[in-house]
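Hi,

Apologies if this is the wrong queue. I'm a grad student, and the batch job for Por secretion system C-terminal sorting domain-containing protein from Bizionia paragorgiae produced an output file that my downstream script rejects. I'm not sure whether the problem is my script or the file. Here is the sequence I used:
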Amino acid sequence: MKKTLLFMFLLVFYISAIAQTQTYNLNWFAGIGSNVDLTIETGDTVIWTWTSPNHSVENDPAGTSVETFNSGVLAANGSTFSYTFANLGANDYYCGVHGAASMSGTITVVAEGTLSTPQFETPRSFSMHPNPGRFSLEVHVPSVTTDGLLFEVFDILGKRIHKQRLTKLKSTIGISTWESGVYLVRVSDSKQSVSLTKRFVKM
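Support response: The file is valid. Your script probably expects a header line. Output copied below for reference.
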């Protein structure tokens, strides 16, 4: 009886772990650009599919990458390469054949459960610069509600490190005391029914 209960517990745990992971599919072709970015959670898998021939997918040694991966050059149209990301942090990648200017992006890996919360859904627009930044960050929003917008910053572990209310179309945020690294910046209304999350790099 105890063995049966233990088996059932392990089975449920295993199925639950599988259900929480996601697979993301990216088309990979010459000229796709330099902003093929994704934010995923630990344990998620990215699959690149060649929609034109002769490419590779590899972490960019000139950029930031917490993991090492390399598909090698695959010639055939329709080739695929998959990689499961296990470590928190940013992974700059590119095509070794065509170069970063033509084919590149960043896979940002955050803690499990971060992206499944409702406040990371239903995006609208805002902009921020400079990104990367060192001393201050300017945040621009197209409109402001009467009670302002909530501005929050999270590290890659999902811990909130900054929170304030935006009451103007342009706000300047002091960031000199933040540690260098990758952050998620979220702007939402007072009820958090509408929000947008973007990646920010502190130098």
